[in-house]
Design goal:
With about 675 residues, this protein is α+β, with helices and mostly antiparallel strands. The chain has 16 helices and 28 strands. It folds into three domains: about 350 residues, no CATH class; about 140 residues, Immunoglobulin-like, CATH 2.60.40; about 80 residues, no CATH class. The strands form eight sheets. It has a six-stranded mixed β-sheet. A hairpin with a 2-residue loop joins strand 9 and strand 10.
């Protein structure tokens, strides 16, 4: 027996080494389990209209790991880091005022991550931070932001998507310098009504600057040289900002953002957060009466900052937290109804950026309403299971897998640069389908581990052995951009059509991106392109455009892209992505929007002739009805188009005849009276 053992000692050593190798391999496989077993996280929620949102992930110790999604107003339009006092009024596409309270919990958590950086702070070029009116040559044309010069229409209840028709020039600002800090450069701040001070500003900001502007150097432009650096500096601080930035989701519409778990993340406890803010979200405790428009220090404020717009400081941002485990086996399905807490919109408050508990008793002056629709906690609506924010996971799908649902959620095995995005419902997107003959540990970049979207509740499964053999969707064919048929909207809406792609797996989404710079490949598609918006004049503005994914291959898909500008050359890119997050080839098309016909006919032709001036009170009332009530729906737009077609010629015929003009005033009197009643 001893001899046998001696003879087999070498074999035993080999066996032990083999067992050690196997154990090590099993341990390594266990450490990499999240990538195989729970390789995608699906974040589901249904927001109220106008919600600004951030979604992110932290590890079990509370260390920030990655931003999953960040709405465009913060990530691209720079509302958290632009010129103007942080407590300045707001309005429809209001151009000034650092909205430091928009998503402060996310901003602080991101900045607390190892190796995280802050952004350069943007201030006015030469104005005091509380002034909204120009005091020097410091402006250039602004295609997005504007000031509404009708004080009444700038009130919260009067906001609409056609309020700012007149071209507006804004001060894009400059970076705050160390010398400014040494000189105590500050902003007006009113901690209590009538008790204003000037607070020195720190050099850096928690939020990115605007990325939607190119420095204008033409005659008559006065952009600071720093404007040319805004976009590059934002990307340097937050490399994944293009990928994670999403369009504002459609209100009251279920959303689902998916995130690919990096293979380097170990098994263990994790926390997902969603922070939601709605500007001007008042209740009894957080109201315009309790927090009115700041007016002091008086020397630091002007008429446009005190008499126009509305106090934006309603209920503060609210955050929900869902805890889950990676590598624990099985799929994740966790959700919560009650929020983790709230933050503050007050940049100068000691608690700014912290998660504070929410007290829901009406006796508490800081209470947040539990039951008011589209307010407070109801910024996220309850789902069928009584949850407001959920996290789910699953595996990738394979062709013919029995467990694959009819419309599965995205399960990525993503190529670089995959898109993060939200989906609006087809009903909100203006989509039509026509049948036709087929013819850092701190903040890792999501460029290689992207988020994506789906609107489905059930996770998808796969056999890992076939993951590398799956086929991506086919190419988008016959992509075409067509001038919109409605003259009143042709300058800002474009009709798009294409054929549905062929795909071995169910489609997750069609990614539609719009740019004013050429898009020619994957990199420019993500970096230059912004998610297409639906064509809408809704009060809350346009939201993300979703195309249907269940149209048979070869049939036409038609939709209308909105939120465009007149006489601008646009590049549109579209590609399909299947439920495994594999993307097909990108198809590109181009179109130049026409001159804004509405601008040349914006006065009501016949009413202007009847009352003698486009500035007449009666004309203004009729114009208000047109803009607010007729242009907001298809039937009304059709009527306006007919009027525009015949009205100009009729007005030219009537103008020389005073008697007919008088008769027109008699005919129009009842309509004017009704319009004024509606306007009031």
């Amino acid at each position: 027996m001893f001899a046998l053992r001696s003879a087999s000692r070498t074999d035993g050593v080999v066996a032990r080494r083999l067992c050690s190798c196997v154990a090590a391999a099993l341990l390594l496989a266990t450490l990499r389990a999240p990538a195989a077993a729970q390789n995608v996280l699906s974040f589901k929620y249904t927001p109220a209209p106008r919600a600004q949102i951030a979604i992110w992930i932290e590890d079990g110790s509370g260390q920030f790991l990655s931003t999953v999604a960040l709405t465009e107003a913060v990530g691209y339009r720079g509302i958290g880091n632009r010129p103007g006092a942080s407590d300045m009024n707001s309005g429809y596409r209001w151009p000034y005022g650092r909205r430091e309270g928009v998503l402060p919990i996310w901003a602080h958590r991101r900045a607390s991550a190892p190796n995280a950086q802050l952004f350069p702070r943007v201030v006015f070029q030469s104005r005091i931070e509380g002034l909204a009116s120009r005091t020097t040559a410091d402006q250039s044309l602004d295609s997005y932001y504007c000031l509404q010069f009708d004080a009444k229409k700038s009130a919260l209840e009067e906001l609409d998507a056609v309020s700012c028709a007149t071209p507006f020039s804004s001060d894009k600002g400059r970076y705050l310098t160390e010398q400014d800090v040494m000189l105590n450069y500050g902003e007006p701040y009113e901690p209590m009504p009538g008790q204003g001070v000037r607070q020195p500003l720190p050099l850096k900001s928690l939020y990115p600057p605007r990325m939607d502007v190119t420095r204008c150097t033409a005659a008559g432009c006065y952009d600071h040289a720093d404007v040319a650096r805004f976009a590059d500096d934002a990307r340097a601080v937050m490399p994944d900002i293009d990928t994670v930035t999403i369009a504002t989701p459609a209100g009251d519409t279920a959303q689902s953002v998916l995130f690919t778990v990096p293979a380097s993340w170990p098994p263990g406890d994790y926390h997902a957060y969603i922070e939601v803010n709605v500007e001007g979200d008042y209740n009894q405790a957080w109201s315009a009466q309790r927090f009115p428009t700041p007016t002091t220090p008086m020397a630091d404020r002007d008429l446009f900052s005190t008499d126009y717009g509305y106090p934006y400081r309603g209920q503060p941002s609210i955050a929900w937290q869902v805890s889950f485990q990676l590598g624990a086996g099985g799929d994740i399905d966790a959700g919560v109804a009650e929020p983790a807490g709230r933050s503050s919109w007050d940049y100068w408050a000691a608690s700014y950026g912290a998660i504070e508990p929410i007290v829901t008793t009406s006796a508490d002056p800081n209470a947040i309403s539990m039951n008011v629709p589209n307010s407070g906690i109801d910024r996220l609506h309850l789902d069928a299971k009584g949850r407001r924010f959920t996290v789910q996971s699953g595996k990738l799908a394979t062709p013919g897998t029995a467990e694959t649902p009819e419309r599965p959620s995205v399960e990525p095995a993503p190529p670089p640069g995959a898109m993060a995005g939200t989906m609006a419902s087809p009903a909100d997107a203006g989509v039509q389908v026509k049948a036709a003959a087929a013819g850092r540990p701190g903040e890792p970049s999501n460029t290689d581990q992207p988020a994506a979207m789906s609107g489905v509740d059930e996770p998808v499964r796969r056999d890992d052995s076939t993951a590398q053999t799956l086929t991506p969707p086919g190419p988008v064919r016959d992509l075409e951009l067509i001038k919109h048929e409605e003259a009143v909207h042709a300058h800002k809406w474009v009709h798009m059509r294409m054929r549905a792609v062929d795909s071995a797996l169910p489609l997750h989404a069609y990614e539609v991106r719009v740019a004013t710079e050429p898009m020619t490949d994957e990199t420019s598609f993500i970096r230059q392109g912004r998610q297409a918006k639906n064509a809408s004049d809704a009060k809350e503005g346009p939201s993300y455009l979703q195309l249907p994914t269940d149209v048979p291959a070869g049939e036409w898909i038609e939709a209308t892209i909105g939120d465009l500008y007149e006489q601008t050359h646009y590049y549109v890119g579209v590609r399909a992505r299947n439920v495994n997050n594999q993307a097909g080839p990108i198809a590109f098309a181009e179109l130049t929007t026409p001159k804004r016909e509405f601008a040349t006919v914006s006065p009501c032709f016949i009413a202007t002739v009847a009352y003698g001036s486009p500035l007449a009170r009666e004309v203004g009332a009729l114009r208000h009805v047109r803009d607010r009530y007729l242009l907001s729906n298809a039937l009304g737009r059709a009527a306006v188009n007919v009027y525009y077609h015949y009205g100009a010629d009729l007005a030219r015929w009537v103008r020389p005849h005073p008697t007919i003009r008088g008769a027109l005033r008699v005919v129009l009197a009842p309509l004017v009276a009704l319009a004024e009643q509606v306007t009031d």
